[in-house]
Design brief:
Length: 351
């Protein structure tokens, strides 16, 4: 009996390498076939834990991480299959490095696809600054990749203390050589988080006017009203007085018309009355601070000031409203028999 058992053990020992290979193939095949099922189960369980109070974030979490986690399941099966047969440290180190890369992939994938929804849910405000989210996303990606590189170098057996010291010295040299870039980067943070303007806003400074097309870490790109693009360093914008023309509550319409000196009082008052009635009839013009009055004896004209506030914010709509008012002024003046004044000079020649 004992001899038979020993023969069986010897036979198993002889076949042990083949058994290990078969077991490794089976484990890899099972994990490969059921990788998506296992990944979905893991992510569903993790989503219930991490997003217990924010269930609307669960779907984005699972969708963004499904592919990297599935790849990790396959890699795990391959590692187990190889490690059963080749029990060497290099196999374990390769698996650690690949695991670091998968974790890096998971973080970048989640940040790219879900950061905007995360901040919206956190602030209970769907109107999250997309530029700020993009800015934070880029920083998190760079930080994640940097940490992954350091960890991989450490796993490969290199001394990272010297690397970190060298990076510190190199970083100091680069920072001294790139003071303007760092200044623009810091100014970009202030612009993005203070939000003096956003992409799509029409802004004006003492040097430039245009629509904001993009805000990056270093500069802001504007499209001027003549259609030409211009790139302004963030440091200049942060130091400038910025008028955000897209955030007006009201616009002011203020100009003067001049009538000839021969215009009588009755005609002036009639023109003012009709102009005031026309302005009050416009739904976008406020009655508050509406002013139509004869207020100046100019060199060649009797000036009537027209001043009002309009809720029309869009630049093109505003110009159309001003055109409409100008045409109505012309019609009223001509209807009442008055004439517009223009600069004149009288020359008297004495005998």
């Amino acid at each position: 009996m004992i001899e038979n058992i020993n023969k069986i053990i010897e036979r198993l020992t002889e076949w042990q390498p083949y058994i290990n290979i078969g077991l490794g193939v089976i484990i890899f095949a099972l994990l490969f076939i059921f990788r998506n099922v296992i990944a979905k189960s893991i992510l569903s369980f993790a989503a219930k834990i991490f997003f217990l109070k924010k269930p609307e974030l669960k779907d984005g979490f699972k969708q963004s991480l499904l592919r990297p986690v599935s790849i990790f399941i396959c890699t795990l099966g391959l590692f187990i299959g190889i490690y059963i047969n080749i029990h060497k440290p290099i196999v374990l180190n390769c698996f650690k490095i690949f695991t670091i890369l998968i974790i890096c992939w998971c973080i970048i994938s989640y940040v790219s696809e879900n950061l905007n929804a995360f901040f919206s849910a956190r602030e209970a405000d769907p109107r999250v600054n997309s530029v700020a989210v993009k800015f934070i996303s880029n920083i998190l990606k760079v930080l994640t990749i940097s940490i992954a590189i350091v960890m991989i170098v450490s796993e490969m057996g290199y001394n990272i203390n010297g690397l970190i010291t060298g990076l510190g010295v190199g970083g100091l040299a680069i920072s001294l050589a790139a003071q303007d870039s760092l200044k623009n980067l810091i100014a970009g943070f202030f612009i993005i988080f203070d939000k003096p303007f956003d992409v799509g806003d029409l802004i004006e400074t003492s040097e430039v006017q245009g629509v904001v097309e993009d805000i990056t870490m270093r500069s802001t790109r504007l499209r001027q009203l003549n259609g030409s693009p211009v790139t302004v360093p963030n440091s200049k914008l942060s130091e400038a007085n910025i008028a955000n023309l897209s955030r007006f509550v009201e616009r002011v319409i203020n100009f003067k018309i001049g009538l000839v000196y021969s215009t009588d009082e009755k005609t002036i008052l009639k023109c003012e009355e009709e102009l005031r009635a026309f302005l009050l009839a416009q739904p976008t013009i406020s009655e508050r601070n509406l002013r139509v009055c004869f207020n100046e004896y100019a060199d060649s004209s009797l000036n009537i000031e027209i001043r009002c506030h309009t809720s029309t914010i869009d630049y093109e709509d505003y110009n159309m409203l001003v055109e409409k008012i100008n045409l109505e002024i012309k019609r009223i003046v001509e209807k009442n028999g008055a004439e517009f004044a223009y600069p004149t000079t009288s020359v008297i020649i004495e005998k």
